[in-house]
Amino acid sequence: MVRSPFMTTLAALATLAVLTVGTSLPADAATKKKKSRKKPAPIPEVPRPHDPFEVSFPSSDGVRLVATWKPSPAGSSAPAVLLLHAFSRERREVAELADELAARGFSTLALDLRGHGESVWKGGARIGLSPSLQTSPNGFPRDVEAACAWLRPRASRLGVLGLSLSGNLAALATATGWADAAVAVSPNADRFEFLAGTRPRSPQGLLVLASEKDPGRAGSARALNALGRPPKSISLYPGAAHALALLQGEPTAKALVFDWLDARLAPIAPPPSPVATIPVPETGPTPATAPTPGGESP
Questions:
Q1: Alpha helix locations (H) across 121-231?
Q2: 7 in a structural domain
Q3: CA 24 to CA 7: how far, in whole Å?
Q4: Using CB atoms within 10 A as the burial measure, which of 167, 178, 242, 279 is most buried?
Q5: Who's near 273: CB < 8 A, 6+ residues apart?
Q6: Dihedral sign (CA 42, 46, 47, 50)
Q7: Model-level pTM?
C-alpha cells in the first residue's frame, strides 16, 4: 500500500510525540525524587523560664550538661546532693526536693540528663531522647560522673538521689566511688548491670525505697539492696506509688531519706584544737598585819 504524503507526515508527528513524552517522564520522576529528599524542619526549642541558678559543664564525650546549682550559705564546707529525675522527665521535677534539702543545710545540683530538658547539645548537633539510653553504659553514667566531678570541690561530702531509672545511677555512683552515699527510689534493677558496664557494681551507703504494688519495683529494691555493702538499708511501702509520687505520698519515706542523707553526709568535724592555758601563779600565805600603835590590829 502506498501512503500519501499526509499520512506519512501524521505518522512521523505521532512518533515524535511518543518519544517526547517518554523522554520527559524520567525528568519529572527525578524532580519528584529530589523534593522527597528535602531535610525535615528542625525541632523547635521549648521556651523555658529563666533559671538564675543555671550552670553547665561537659560530659566526657562532649554533651553540654545543664543543671540548677543551689549552694549552701556554708559554701564548700556543706555536703551536697545530686538530684536525678526519672526517664523522660527533667530537672524541674525535683525542684521541691532541692528546696527541702536546702532548708536542712545541703547544697543541691539538679541535673538534666542527656536528651532531657536543656541537655540536648553535643557539639553543634541536637541530640534526642532514645530508649537505648536506659541500658547504655556510655550515656547517663557519664553524665552522673561529670556532675559528681563538678560537685567534689564544692562540697564536703556528696550524695546522689535518683528516681526510677535514675535510682540505678545513684547506686552506681556509690559503687564507683563518685559519691559517698545514695538514695534509690523505685529503681529498675534489671537495667543496673547494663548501665554499669565494666564499672564496679557493689553500692555502699545506699538506701532503697519502693512500693509493694508498683510492678517489679519491690523485687528490684531487694535485688539492688542485696548487691550493696554496709551501710545499707531498704524500705518498702504499701500501695503502688512510683518514684516522686512515693516521696510525696509517704511522709515517713521522705523523712527516712532526709535522715539517711543527714547521717551519711554530715560534715566530718575536725578534731578540736588544743586550747592554750595560762598558768595561774601560786600565792603564798598572807603576811601578818603589823599591829597599829596602841596594840590593836586595824
A1: 140-151, 165-175, 192-196, 217-227
A2: no
A3: 26
A4: 167
A5: none
A6: negative
A7: 0.77
User: What sign does the dihedral 108-113-117-120 (CA atoms) show?
Assistant: positive
CB atoms within 10 A of CB 202: 13
In a domain, 169, yes or no: yes
**Is position 106 within any domain?**
yes
What nine digits make up the cell of 175?
559503687
Alpha-carbon distance 154 to 176, whole Å? 19
Give the pLDDT score at 266.
87
The DSSP letter of residue 280 is P
In this prediction, residue 290 has a pLDDT band, given cuts at 50, 70 and 90, of: very low
- What's the domain count of the chain? 1
Q: Give residue for cell 541537655.
A: 119
Supply 199's cell numbers. Answer: 564499672
| Domain at 157, CATH number | 3.40.50.1820
- Residue 290, CB-side half-sphere exposure with 13 Å CA sphere: 2
Contacting residues for 259 by C-beta, under 8 A, at least 6 apart: none
Q: What are the helix (H) ranges across the chain?
A: 5-36, 95-103, 140-151, 165-175, 192-196, 217-227, 244-249, 251-265
Residue whose entry in the numeric block shows the C-alpha cell 553526709: 265
CA 199 to chain centre: 18
Provide the terminal-to-terminal Cα distance of the chain, rounded to the nearest Å. 175
Residue 104 lies in a domain: yes
Instruction: Please state, as a whole number, how many other Cβ atoms lie within 10 Å of the Cβ of residue 121.
Output: 16
Closest Cα partner for 81 from 63, 62, 103?
103
Q: Are 204 and 178 in contact (CB under 8 A)?
A: no
Q: Is the peptide bond before 272 cis (omega within 30 degrees of 0)?
A: no
Domain range for residue 140?
54-265
The closest alpha carbon to 261, from 118, 103, 134, belongs to 103
